[in-house]
Write a structure and sequence with these properties.
The protein has 10 helices and 9 strands. It is α/β, with parallel strands linked by helices. The strands form 2 sheets. Strands 2-1-3-4-5 form a 5-stranded parallel sheet.
């Protein structure tokens, strides 16, 4: 448990020593062909999803897209600027797609083959995370791509607000037991990311309900032991979700944010980790050490 929580709190260290925007990614987003983020799992879901939402809100339509490495291998990549992302710097699917293109490379730790492809590289972590499930590195990837979008569009990132939001969220919580988790959020990849983390950290099934998907019949599945998690739904949708859940044995729980602004998903990412850590404790698991799941950067 301590290793996982230490990794989560590593986020605060990264925010306190943040290096600012990545100039090469900012320049790529400002001009030239669109940027295509090619990554797997946690390096794609929220880094790509959140940045695309932010780009649309800032009027940067069509400047950024995201896909996995297998899909990228089927594309004509001569018409895009490829950005590879991987916490370990070793993820084979993105490497296979972009290794010959001198892509931008966003990695958690130095030393992997992705940092030797010849293109601009940014290394996010001064040391590796300990837990199998990536946490602080995911936050750093999300913020790096989102910050580049902001700067390219003439906006700025409220770093002090993010520091306060993370500090408020990264507090251990108590939690009753649950058998299944339904993550209900926007289209920013947060629900997908926390659903992915659910299995690794708790051994429980996690389901993602992005946008209004939780309001399209999912309540047909809800039963005793289900926890429906509101990741910042608007007032109308949150009320609708509560009404639907009230007719089932499921419980609804909302994760708080420092403010209900464009950056609230980053607060809730941290809050989601704390909820998962508490659930892992309830079911008797160490969230840092899954029973079977292994990662490229954590081969032990």
């Amino acid at each position: 448990m301590t290793a996982f929580l230490d990794d989560c709190r590593f986020t605060l260290e990264l925010l306190n020593r943040w290096n600012g925007p990545w100039p090469e990614l900012v320049d790529a987003l400002r001009s030239g062909p669109p940027v295509l983020l090619v990554a797997e799992g946690s390096s794609r879901l929220m880094p790509g999803g959140f940045a695309q939402v932010l780009a649309r809100r800032l009027g940067m339509h069509g400047r950024l897209a995201a896909c996995g490495g297998r899909e990228a291998q089927r594309l004509d990549l001569s018409q895009v600027r490829v950005l590879l992302a991987s916490n370990s710097g070793r993820s084979r699917e993105p490497m296979a797609a972009g290794a010959k293109l001198k892509p931008l490379a966003l990695v958690g730790v130095a030393g992997g083959p992705m940092t030797a492809l010849g293109g601009p590289t940014r290394v996010l972590l001064p040391r590796p995370e300990v837990a199998i499930a990536a946490t602080a590195s995911v936050y750093a990837q999300v913020l790096t791509v989102a910050e580049a979008v902001c700067v390219a569009s003439g906006a700025s990132v409220p770093l002090d607000r993010l520091r306060r939001g993370a500090a408020a969220a990264l507090v251990p919580v108590t939690q009753s037991t649950a058998k299944r988790l339904f993550w209900c959020g926007g289209e920013d990849g947060l629900a997908d990311e926390l659903a992915l983390k659910t299995a690794e950290t708790t051994g429980l099934p996690g389901f993602t309900c992005p946008g209004t998907m939780a309001l399209h019949g999912v309540e047909e599945l809800w039963m005793e032991g289900d926890l429906v998690i509101d990741l910042g739904l608007g007032a109308e949708d949150a009320a609708d979700l509560a009404r639907r859940a009230a007719a089932t044995p499921a419980k609804v729980q909302r994760i708080a944010a420092l403010a209900e602004d464009d950056w609230a998903p980053l607060d809730r990412l941290c809050g989601g980790w704390m909820l998962l850590a508490a659930l892992a404790s309830v079911v008797g698991r160490d969230p840092a050490v899954p029973l079977r799941a292994r990662k490229v950067g954590n081969p032990a």
